[in-house]
Amino acid sequence: MVNITMLGCGGNVPSPSRFCSCSLINYKGKKILIDCGEGTQISMKNLGTGFKGIDLVLITHLHGDHINGLLGLLSSLGNAEKRDPLIIVGPKGIKRAIKAMMILWEGLPYGLNVIENPIGKFSVNMPIYNEIEIDVLELEHSVECLGYSLYFKRNRSFSVKKALFNNVPKSLWKNLQKGQTFYYNNKTYTPDMVLDKERKGIKLTYVTDTRPIKEIETFAKDSSIFICEAMYSDDMDIGKAVKNKHMTFRETCNLANKSNSKKLLLTHFSPSVSKPELFEDFTKSLFKNSIIAYDGITIEIPYED
Amino acid sequence: MVNITMLGCGGNVPSPSRFCSCSLINYKGKKILIDCGEGTQISMKNLGTGFKGIDLVLITHLHGDHINGLLGLLSSLGNAEKRDPLIIVGPKGIKRAIKAMMILWEGLPYGLNVIENPIGKFSVNMPIYNEIEIDVLELEHSVECLGYSLYFKRNRSFSVKKALFNNVPKSLWKNLQKGQTFYYNNKTYTPDMVLDKERKGIKLTYVTDTRPIKEIETFAKDSSIFICEAMYSDDMDIGKAVKNKHMTFRETCNLANKSNSKKLLLTHFSPSVSKPELFEDFTKSLFKNSIIAYDGITIEIPYED
């Protein structure tokens, strides 16, 4: 199971009830942050999420409401005794931005590996994180901006029935389950002989800030959860949405429909939208399984089978 | 009258109930910020202080809990239609830090004038701000750190009685009051001939982060209000205070006594001090007119006469 906590759902600038963009994904004791607006570490303390287990930060773009909390967070991770390297992924310019931050804060007690503008799918070569395949899409905003889609792979389960049926010696079971192949007593044993059928993983797609470009539909295809910006609640604000390269609630819901996502979490609300929760009936009428995010909401995303 | 609002009273890292160091001084419609920790602009929104009228920011030192909110604030000042230059004063390294911030946030719609490590007293040459004399003291912290003492000068009041006694023509009254001298009908008229005696201004001294060095006593001498760090409430934490270059509540109160300050506002509490307000009886026993600060407290500082 994966869960995601929205630490900040505010777009543009923080408002009294909404910190700036930041989401915290929990997976098997490891944490991934997507974006890190001002107040991220304050929100983490409010919610008691803890600072341990964060090894990966994905930044969508370099606007202040998405990165201004990073400097404070990097420092607090050090205070929380982080000593393993932190991987930061971001769009073009992220290396320059991190370098600038290091002028402001010298002497981090852990290393930083910055991955700039990765193309296509990649995985992070660390235990647990290597079970996640990360896909990247270039969005359409006023600056370079990346969408992230995380696929949490699921191991095939071990089938005693199948192992017995295939006469696999018990001494090989454990290693076959791990994916190794054996030649033993003149016979080849493969993982397929002890493993059940492939199981569907969890697909979490995170898209902000952008216009609703066609490519997002494929990118978010069949997402278990589609977390997407929804800057303006009112259809009448479409002009602002086009001008500022954002979306209306309706456009966000349309993308959820077209991508066949299972669940939609709307976030990144304009400061002018003071009570986005009042629009939940409206969004549900457009996309049934939609939720209006708020600071502190946690969504559990179970495996589908 | 001057007033000061504490936007953040937390030392080191923000805690759920305390943002990082930041104070907002109001004087005749103008605002001065001292320090700008993460969450400053959030606290300003919570308290509804507004972003207009800030032309001067004084930074004590370059630790994250004192500057990490500056980037977001600079951006929000631009959103609040600031177009006049902002003056930022800070210790050695402030120019480099601001330069780094400008890599992260290009295109501010107003200019920045950065004054690095000023020595002695200075004034800012802008209306209203030029009524304030700012004194600077090098403190004793783990990095270069400045204390600020602001003296809000008070105009002498106009005395009709004195003007009449000195036979000053009415046509000269206004300009004499402004400080001009006139030679008129073979006689010299000076401001002294229409102005009452000198009046005491308001002295606001702000000292954080530091050990209680002797020089602070003179620097804060006769302050109307002495705002001072008080990292540790417990006398037993003196070892930590010495090691981390901070103060205990007792040391802070001692400085208030020795400087003959009228009022003491204790701030910059360690995250380990969860309820500093519980120590107010203790601080009052050491320095009668002491107040334990909290986020959002506003203190009005009237003229003494």
UniProtKB/TrEMBL annotation, chains A, B:
<dbReference type="InterPro" id="IPR036866">
    <property type="entry name" value="RibonucZ/Hydroxyglut_hydro"/>
</dbReference>
<feature type="binding site">
    <location>
        <position position="63"/>
    </location>
    <ligand>
        <name>Zn(2+) 1</name>
    </ligand>
</feature>
<comment type="subunit">
    <text>Homodimer.</text>
</comment>
<feature type="binding site">
    <location>
        <position position="141"/>
    </location>
    <ligand>
        <name>Zn(2+) 1</name>
    </ligand>
</feature>
<feature type="binding site">
    <location>
        <position position="66"/>
    </location>
    <ligand>
        <name>Zn(2+) 2</name>
    </ligand>
</feature>
<keyword id="KW-0819">tRNA processing</keyword>
<keyword id="KW-0255">Endonuclease</keyword>
<feature type="binding site">
    <location>
        <position position="209"/>
    </location>
    <ligand>
        <name>Zn(2+) 2</name>
    </ligand>
</feature>
<dbReference type="GO" id="GO:0042781">
    <property type="term" value="F:3'-tRNA processing endoribonuclease activity"/>
</dbReference>
<keyword id="KW-0540">Nuclease</keyword>
<feature type="binding site">
    <location>
        <position position="268"/>
    </location>
    <ligand>
        <name>Zn(2+) 2</name>
    </ligand>
</feature>
<feature type="binding site">
    <location>
        <position position="209"/>
    </location>
    <ligand>
        <name>Zn(2+) 1</name>
    </ligand>
</feature>
<dbReference type="Pfam" id="PF23023">
    <property type="entry name" value="Anti-Pycsar_Apyc1"/>
</dbReference>
<feature type="binding site">
    <location>
        <position position="65"/>
    </location>
    <ligand>
        <name>Zn(2+) 2</name>
    </ligand>
</feature>
<dbReference type="InterPro" id="IPR013471">
    <property type="entry name" value="RNase_Z/BN"/>
</dbReference>
<comment type="similarity">
    <text>Belongs to the RNase Z family.</text>
</comment>
<protein>
    <recommendedName>
        <fullName>Ribonuclease Z</fullName>
        <ecNumber>3.1.26.11</ecNumber>
    </recommendedName>
</protein>
<comment type="function">
    <text>Zinc phosphodiesterase, which displays some tRNA 3'-processing endonuclease activity. Probably involved in tRNA maturation, by removing a 3'-trailer from precursor tRNA.</text>
</comment>
<feature type="binding site">
    <location>
        <position position="61"/>
    </location>
    <ligand>
        <name>Zn(2+) 1</name>
    </ligand>
</feature>
<keyword id="KW-0862">Zinc</keyword>
<keyword id="KW-0378">Hydrolase</keyword>
<feature type="active site" description="Proton acceptor">
    <location>
        <position position="65"/>
    </location>
</feature>
<keyword id="KW-0479">Metal-binding</keyword>
